[in-house]
Each structure stands twice: as C-alpha cells, then as structure tokens.
Amino acid sequence: MRFWLLKTEAEEFGWHDQIAAGEVGAEWHGIRNYQARNNLRAMELGELAFFYHTGREKAVVGIVEVSRLAASDSTTDDPRWDSVWVRAQRPLQPVTLERCRQEPALKDMVLLHNSRLSVQPVTAAEWELICQLGGKH
To answer: What CA–CA distances, in Å, run from 46 to 1, 68, 82, 133?
Structure first.
C-alpha cells in the first residue's frame, strides 16, 4: 500500500466538506499538473492520503481513503485530466507545515521540497510520524 498527500484550499473544499460528503465521498478534481495527475492515476482502491489544507492554515488535518480509481475529471472536457474519489476516514490534530519542517525525519518529504505539487506521495515512515504527531497512535 502506498500513501499520499492531497492539498486543498480550506475555503474552497475543506475537511468539513469532505466529512459532509459522507460514505460516498467526493471527487478530487481540478488537478491540472501532469505530475499530480500521474500520481492520481497511480492510486489504488483503499490507499490512504493525508488531507492537507493550504492557504493560511498549511496543515495536515485528516486522513481520506481512495474510494474510486482515476477516471475522467467531471469538471473538464479535456481528456488529459483525471480525478479520483476519496472518503473521509478520520480527522487528525492539525500537523502544520512548520511542525513538519522541525522534524529531521521529514527532511526529504515532498511537501517540504515541492510544496506546489497538489497530489504527492508520502513514504511509510513519513506517514507513521505524521499520524503520531496528529494523535492517531
């Protein structure tokens, strides 16, 4: 199983919106970067992702699960762009970007080096540490 991080503007679609989507989940759409799109295409059912608020908060705030595989993005007619569906699994105590920067074990995390990438892989070790910081363990 691989792990991911999905970035969103909290004011546009925040954790409360993801929770409100219920068991059906919500389409993770609007990705217009090839690397991010390729990451969406690599996702498998049941894989987990951090739900990350960009903007003012800049923090991991929850965990979502991939509930539908990559398919055409419903927000465009351009066949180059895909989306996945995700459903909320559980909230986390916010783990800020600044807190991640303070952790030596996270020094190679994509979030710290390519912060503009909206869909990014997370290693198993990074996953475990952020889950601990967010109160999951």
So the answer is: 8, 9, 18, 22
pLDDT tens sequence across 41-57 = 999 999 999 999 998 89
Query: Into how many domains does the chain fold?
Result: 1
What is the pTM assigned to this prediction?
Answer: 0.96
| Number of Cα atoms under 13 Å in the Cβ half of residue 66 | 24
Asked if residue 110 lies in contact with residue 121, where contact means CB atoms within 8 angstroms, the answer is: yes
Please write the tens of the pLDDT for every residue from 4-26: 999 999 999 999 999 999 999 99
Give the β-pairing of 48-54 and 59-72: antiparallel
Alpha-carbon distance 119 to 7, whole Å?
Answer: 7
State the CATH number of the domain containing residue 120. Answer: 3.10.590.10
Give residue 26's domain range. 3-133
